[in-house]
Amino acid sequence: MLLNNISVSQLRNLLVPFMDAAVWPGLADSESKAIARQYAHESGLWDRLAKEIDPESAIPVLRYHDYQDYFQTGRRELYEVLFQQRLDRTERAALALWLDHPAANLDELQDLLWSWCESRWSFPAMDPGYIDLVSSRIGRTLAELSWLFRDRLGPRVQERICREIEARILNLALDWRTTDWWTTDGNNWNSVCNSNLIQTALYQIRDPWQLAAFVHPVCRRMDYALHYFTADGGCPEGVGYWEYGFGHLLDAALALGLRTGGKVNLAADPHVERICRFPTAVHLRGPLRTTFSDSDNGYLQAQTALKINRLFAMPELFSLTEATPQGLLRLPDLRTLALYQGQRPQPDANRTDVLLPQLGLAKLYAATGSVLAAVAGRNDVSHNHNDIGSFIWMVGQRTFLTDPGAPVYTSKTFGPDRYDILVCRSRGHSVPLVNGREQAAGHQYYGIIEAYGLNASGEKKIVIDMTHAYPDPTLQHLGRELKIDNSGWLALTDTYRFSEPPQAVEEAFITFENVAVQNQNRCVEIGEASQAVSLSALTDGQFAVETYPKEQHEGRDARPLHRITFTPVVLKSQMVVSFRLGTPA
User: Fold this and answer.
1) Angle between helices 64-73 and 77-98 (to 10 degrees)
2) Which of 135, 202, 270, 341 is most buried, judged by most C-beta within 10 A?
3) 55 burial class (0-12, 13-18, 19+ CB within 10 angstroms)?
4) Which structural domain range is residue 565 located in?
5) How many Å apart are CA 266 and CA 3, to the nearest integer?
6) Looking at the structure, do residues 435 and 297 belong to the same domain, yes or no?
7) pLDDT-derived band at 369, boundaries 50, 70, 90
8) CA 523/CA 526 separation, integer angstroms
9) Residue pLDDT, tens place only, 99-111
10) How far is CA 215 from CA 15, 174, 386, in A?
């Protein structure tokens, strides 16, 4: 447990010698700034700052009309885009000033900081009146910039920042009258909000007793976040929220380590080290990774790899990051540049099979270059999709069968209508319909995953028990086997057992690739021309295709989503449905 063996008074004594120290590595280090300036010149960032900084341009106004758009239409983009534009401009102005760039303008930064003191710190999708993901971020940002430029900012700006942080963040954080649900929840809100509170307090509270009394219970609350990760280091919310939530927990570990001279290490736990390795488990190839739950494809952020390597030696994480045209890490902001010590991106050499049974994830590589990933788990996790048995199959750089990933967030994403969204419900995944029923949400709906032949050279397979994923009282067993070998083919077999003959069984396969039903509906071509693969059934039945444009599937991929269905001819109490997928002879 975090700070389990350190009392408030002990924490106070550890903080006393470092009350004026930085809260973020490299911010107060002249050598780190010199490395950052050199990077800025080599990467072209220096020239971009010269072009992008325009102190005379209007600061984005966060209007009531834009705020209300969410409540009238359910759309989140209008207000959030303007909010992010202002935040990006604030961070860009601060970066230029920290780098001593000739285009830096102190007045612009002060105007931006003042504008934050005059406006809301939350998105309309967040409940007003309490600390949330965004307000805690703004509080931490203002506290950090006020400290970093304490000798340059005008006294009225600093006083106003202090006053707003106290009123909006610090005075609410431990107030018994507030009901912040995330304080004892395990999902990403816990790590993000608590970490931002810790860092804000380390900047703002100048009395060591008061600081220790604030920081100690907030640290302890992050135990709930650590316990939310499975014992094998997996994140049920998906890799994007792993990076967001767990990344903030790492922020708190770095900050508290600096402010105690290394005496407090929140990452000193084998469980934390296992969690740090999670992105290697979900990485597929290049920027492609598993998109189960509310996840997207994308590279690991350089800041995340840099943070972890401050705590553990994991240079392999740099193979998951994006390189600039100059072959450098992509370092977009002040905090990331302050961490940078000259590391370089590494070649993408990850070809390791993975099984995380507690999370319910398996990933297998074939010698022919294909990769298979599948998910089980439970249908009651944060950012849940009803997707037990869903899988991804890639050959080279093409994903022929996919998991559709996260939806576009709107007012219905996190409400009672979530499973009306195609990419969240089981109908939008490569899983069967059983007697017309989809999988249901809830802790009682789960799957069990196993994998065989891991890191071997021959046949490998993933086996998933999907029996308990469906609210069908007649379903006694549903097992799925996914098998790959050196032939380059994927074999899928679903085995059913019912207490009585089923009325309907429909298999489904999800893809964003073009599809064409062929051979009198007995097989399907997926992909284009010479790069296409063939999906064929070894069971009597017929294929069909349903196509959903973006406005219907509501996912983040702009392409139409194709749902390939297969209906067996014969339905029996015990039945096996088998398929082969691969390059036609």
Assistant:
1) 140
2) 202
3) middle
4) 354-582
5) 8
6) no
7) confident
8) 10
9) 999 999 999 999 9
10) 11, 10, 38
